[in-house]
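#dry-run=false #mode=assembly
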Amino acid sequence: MTSATFRIWRGNAKGGKFQDYTTEVSEGMVVLDAVHQVQAEQANDLAVRWNCKAGKCGSCSAEVNGSPKLMCMTRLSSLPLDKPVTIEPMQAFPSIRDLVTDVSWNYQVKKEIQPFSPREPDSADGTWRMEQYDVERVQEFRKCIECFLCQDVCHVLRDHRLHGEFIGPRFFVYSAALEMHPLDTVDRTTELANDHGVGYCNITKCCTKVCPEEITITDNAIIPLKERVVDKMYDPLTKLLRMFRG
Amino acid sequence: MSTRGQGEANRSMDYESYEHDVLVIGAGGAGLRAAIEASSAGVSVGLVCKSLLGKAHTVMAEGGMAAALANVDDRDDWKVHFADTMRGGQYLNNWRMAELHAQEAPARARELEAWGAVFDRTKDGRILQRNFGGHKYPRLAHVGDRTGLEMIRTLQDHGIHQGIDVHMECTIVELLKDGDRVVGAFGYDRERGRFQLFSARAVVLASGGIGRAFKVTSNSWEYTGDGHALAYRAGADLMDMEFVQFHPTGMVWPPSVRGILVTEGVRGEGGVLRNSNGKRFMFEDIPDLYLSSTADDEEEGWRYTQGDKNSRRPPELLTRDHVARCIVREIKEGRGSPHQGVFLDIAWIKERLPNGAEHIKKKLPSMYHQFKQLAGIDITEEPMEVGPTTHYVMGGIRVDPDSQMSTVPGLFAAGECAAGLHGANRLGGNSLSDLLVFGQRAGQYAASFAKEQGAASINQGQVEEVARQALEPFERGEGNVEGPYQVQFDLQDMMQAQVGIVRTEGDIQKAIDEFPTLRSRADRVGVQGNREYNAGWHTALDLRNLLMVAEAVARSAILRRESRGAHFREDYLQKDAEQGKLNTVVRLDSSGEMQVKQEALPPVRGDLQEIIEDNK
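#status=ok
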């Protein structure tokens, strides 16, 4: 057995500090295993949020050696263990305690996006017909596990703290899934531009890089939304028509 | 905060109060569906989640949702689904629940689509359905291998616009009663550890399973049998608790991922099980009930997985209980894989399909990633190593099949924590449909029950007693005492070893004899720190529930002297016709002891019996 040191942030909204814990590590372990081991053996009250331990629920988001990661999918073998592994909570959200942050803002944001509203059913039995090809685009977005790592890494939220004016990559993916849903009838472009701040994104693709579900957030979701906004709100011909129609 | 200040904060019995017409405890598929239904019936609804919204175990469901839509094979209908469910459950199922489930699942699936779910499509644009163990026809509506995520997200995104009050990261520690009737619940929020009192005219339990009672499990920390234990302590009957499903294919290596689920969809797509000699051992032992519906050879089995309607299913797609036992046999007899599992090979289909590797990644994307990231294995190139993992409990709270009300007025249950639908063994895919069908019913009946009730009164004495007990671990934490984790680990080791996949009277008795010791250890555990997001404290409180459900499993298991479905007794290898007419009922007697006895199954309605016979 070899051992490794984990430098874990302990504290709450009022402040805190890193604390080192040394524990034994074995083949195949992930960061979450190490945190659990520390919790069971040395710090019973260490706060960590987790559920499925298989990269499917998106609960155990944190920053490992400075990168936003799911702790359950980050193998120790992918990290240098000759120096302490730092584990700290996501920085874009308020601290609750130790590795747990208050992500409730995300739940508020989602509520403000206009919900799905389908067209009339295609068939008398109340069902619809959709081509596999047409649903695949949306299925990519619906893989999202709501880990909020994309929100954490986005500089508009993380550095500029524009939580009031910008919904973040997760909710552009959510909006794109609705906008491109073959059955949906709602047009969300006006609020995307005016209230949801799609213009703030300057397509640095940080979100795409950290997405554990490998959703091509910037290229497939945000850029097409930006294009829709431009087409609808800034296209000269449309603008002219709007002037006449009032 | 000073130690003294912390001590005072830890001892605070203050609580916040909430009032709802219907309180739903649990926010997976069943809880969300119940909350949506109750809300649409015009009552106020509170939804309590032990975790964040959308993280419940429903997200882990991979394969799909069983519903006789007949989109892929038009021979399917609710009758065949009903008969398949009863056969899979070895006829211990509540026939009325199996009937309602089969009849209503298609409407529940279509409704999800109307709420935005995006299932995979057939060539003519309808919902695609796949093969699964024990289902005669391709019946599982699915989205790749992440159907559960699609379902919970659809319900969540629909539900947040229905005026439901969501209480995230809140754990209920006790139900509150006024006379016979359940009138609320008392718990705490994880974030600050503050107590919360919910008064309600009806309560729906949708709290999921008990997987954490065992060492190797696909379940997360949440599944400590809370709903089962809350209902039991409130005086409700539990039923058929001996039936715990060990899913045949969990990951076995590396050690830290042991137990994580490998979807049955791998076998549905043509994956085969082999032992260390490279032999497809599943062909060696096919139960009589399934002889006529199982492929004669590998060739026919392959054709079945590729949609040939005239072929029969390969033996890898027999029911989960049987496949799990065959795997255990191979390992026991020395033909296992290097890490005490067997091989599950999907890579071989590249011999049959031109774009095999791409096909695998497309059909099983999350399995591909799971093995690649956690085990360093490329499933399009190498076989996986798999072994059984504790997955699901068929037993649970005894409910009225139509209304889902338990034996306690005002207390309803739906989903995994309710008993009846699955009998002795659940078919894959029947869980997601169960959540929706009975979540909807529980919500509907809880709402109408709530409308008929006057306001109830909360018993302050009970509230104070529950609060005082919940804080005891902190009082003890100041001394040099055992923490909660070691007790939990010892319980899990014991259940795995003595009341696991293969059981004998001697082993089960040993487990039963251990409970008094484990209980008194649990009663003495102490925790340090304060009440904010303190996992040690939560584990200490959950232990009581875990011990209760584990004991119910063991005491039910010793009573059933036969092997049926998921309950396998090495000392009673055969099914027993008389035992097959009995449910096992667990209840708290007036002296505070656990009472376990067998009660006669309700006789199957005549027309349904005919359906069963026609499909044999």
